[in-house]
Amino acid sequence: MTKKDVLELKRRFKKNECTFTKLCGCYVDGQKNIVTKLEETFLNLKDEEFYKYLEIAKKTLSGTIGNNLLELEFPQAEENAGGKQQFLMGLKASKLKNPDLLERFYQQIIDSYDYVGNYLILLFHDAYDVITKTNDNAKLDESEEVYEYLLCAICPVELTKPGLGYREDEHRIGARIRDWVVSVPENGFLFPAFSDRSSDIHSILYFTKNAKESHPEFMEAGLGCASKKTATEQKETFQSIVKKALGSDEEKSTEVLMEIHQNMNDFVEENIERQEKNAAPVLLTSDAIQEILMESGISEELSSKIEQSCAEEFGDTPPAAEQIIDNKLVQANEQRKKEQELVQQVQTLTQKLVEKETDDTPSITSEEETPNATLASYDVVLNVKPQKVAQIKSEIINGKKCLVIPMEDDEHANVNGVTTII
How many Cβ atoms are within 10 Å of 214's Cβ, its own excluded? Predict the structure, then answer.
C-alpha cells in the first residue's frame, strides 16, 4: 500500500462519509480475562461516542509507511483451509454477526499479544464502494469494486492520574475519582490491504504506534504473517552490528558510524540522481554495504563481518538504505567536519602570522654563524651564544616591539663593542 491508498481510506472517516456498518470489541484486563464485550451498529452511536471511535479508526491508519505502517504477506499455508488468512476472510464475510467467530478472534489476539495491562480490542467492518477515477483524478459515477474490509485497533486502557478536584456532592476540594480511560491505539491492522485502489487478500496492513516495539509475536502468532522490522528497528539493528564490529572504543566507533551514515546518504542521493523519479528505493544489499564501508575506510575484514551480520539479520529482504540513514548522525558528521575545517584554518592562519612575525623580526644569530654577507640589510644584528637563542622573545612594551633577552647574574653583554652591565 502507498500513502495515497491510506489517505483515500482515511478521508472517508468523517461523519457524512463514513460507512462503517458494525463495531464490535471486548475489554481485556491485566490477567488476560475478557471483562465485557460490545457490539454496536456504528451509525446508531451517539455523536460523542461516534467521533471518539472514528478518531481511533483514523489513528490506526496513521504514521509513516515502512515505520508505523507495515505491509505483511500471508504465507501459502495460512491461505489454505484452517489458516489465519482464511479465518479473517470468514470473519469479514460474516460482517461481524457471528458470535463464535468473534469469540475466536478475541481469544486469538489475547493468546498472542504480549502486553502487560488492560486493553480494549475494537473491530470495525466497512464496505467501501470504490468509484472509478479518470487519469486526472476526476470521479465518475461508476463503481470499480466494493472493497469490504476489517479494521482492528488494540487500545491500552489506563487509570487516570491521581489528583485533586472539586467534590460537588460534598462542596469541597478532595481526591479526584480515578477511572479507566481508553487511550489511542498501540497496535492494529487493516485486512485485506487496499493496494492500487483494490482489495489485496494476500496482504495485511499492520499498525504500530511505537516503532521501537512493534510486537512481532502478534504479527506471527496472531495474524499468521512473517514479521517485519520497522525502519526504526532496522536502523537500530544496523548501528548495533557496526558498533559491535568496531569494538569498545566508543568515541572512535561513533565517528566511524557518523562517516558511514554520511556515505550512505551520499550513496542514496547519487543513485536517485541516476534513476528515474519514481524508481524503486535503493536497497542496502551486500554490494551496497561493501561500497559504503570501503568509502568509510573500514578494513576488508571488518566489512566482511558486518556484511555477514546484516545478511543474518535481514535475510533475503535487505532494507531500504534511506530508512537506515540516521539524519542526526549525518548532521553531526557535517558539523564535525566544519569544526575540523575551522581548526585547520586557524592553524594555517596562526602559522602565517608566526612566519610574518619572523620576517619582521631583526636577525638573531649565534656566535657560530657569520652574518657578514647580510649585515647591511638589518638595523639590529645580535651575536649570542647558541644556548641563548631559544630564550629570546619578542614582546610589545609601551607600544613598541622589543626583543627580550633573559640574563643571569653571571652573564655579560656587549653592545657594539661596549661592555654593558645589566
Answer: 23
